Amino acid sequence: MYRVYGDLASGNCYKVKLLMNHLGLAHEWIAIDILQGETRTEAFLSKNPNGKIPLLEVPSGQCLSESNAILNYLADGTDYLPKDAWLRANVLKWQFFEQYSHEPYIAVARFIAKYLGLPEERRAEYEAKQVEGYRALRVMEEHLTDRNYLVNESITIADISLYAYTHVADEGGFDLSGYPAVQTWCDRLSSHPRHIPMV
């Protein structure tokens, strides 16, 4: 059985949990508290020297880190990762966008507000994240205006990657009311029969 080490309130961990539910993959979830230093223990670092979650441990005992790498591994051979080279490249494009143009702003603003309680010494950083976070949302809004999903006519791991932090962007101070296509897309994903909410 798969083991996943993670924090269900983390978007990067939630995206793994969400895909596994979509795929019906049995797994053991091992809760990790990053604020208590549980990713810095000798036992955890022996599995992931980078000391980050999520971490997937496969039945052979091998471990895989980085959320989008985990999604690609689990989705391989399913409709969530198209076989067509062009569509597959576009899935990767949106996953790279998520990690470089979306997550560093929307997720970090959420972390500062939700996990740290928006301390005064990080308020300037929090406010600076808003500019690029809204830019990422505008890119998504433009793309989704005439599409149901990011890449194909059905859900892929590109959608799961970006849904994770987008649907809770308000927790990082982002107002989605001006992004109707993004809101509709979020609603579409959350209405999927295999959807599970973030804890």
UniProtKB/TrEMBL annotation:
<dbReference type="InterPro" id="IPR036282">
    <property type="entry name" value="Glutathione-S-Trfase_C_sf"/>
</dbReference>
<comment type="similarity">
    <text>Belongs to the GST superfamily.</text>
</comment>
<dbReference type="InterPro" id="IPR010987">
    <property type="entry name" value="Glutathione-S-Trfase_C-like"/>
</dbReference>
<feature type="domain" description="GST N-terminal">
    <location>
        <begin position="1"/>
        <end position="82"/>
    </location>
</feature>
<dbReference type="InterPro" id="IPR040079">
    <property type="entry name" value="Glutathione_S-Trfase"/>
</dbReference>
<dbReference type="InterPro" id="IPR004045">
    <property type="entry name" value="Glutathione_S-Trfase_N"/>
</dbReference>
<dbReference type="Pfam" id="PF00043">
    <property type="entry name" value="GST_C"/>
</dbReference>
<feature type="domain" description="GST C-terminal">
    <location>
        <begin position="84"/>
        <end position="199"/>
    </location>
</feature>
<dbReference type="Pfam" id="PF02798">
    <property type="entry name" value="GST_N"/>
</dbReference>
<protein>
    <submittedName>
        <fullName>Glutathione S-transferase family protein</fullName>
    </submittedName>
</protein>
<dbReference type="InterPro" id="IPR036249">
    <property type="entry name" value="Thioredoxin-like_sf"/>
</dbReference>
<dbReference type="InterPro" id="IPR004046">
    <property type="entry name" value="GST_C"/>
</dbReference>
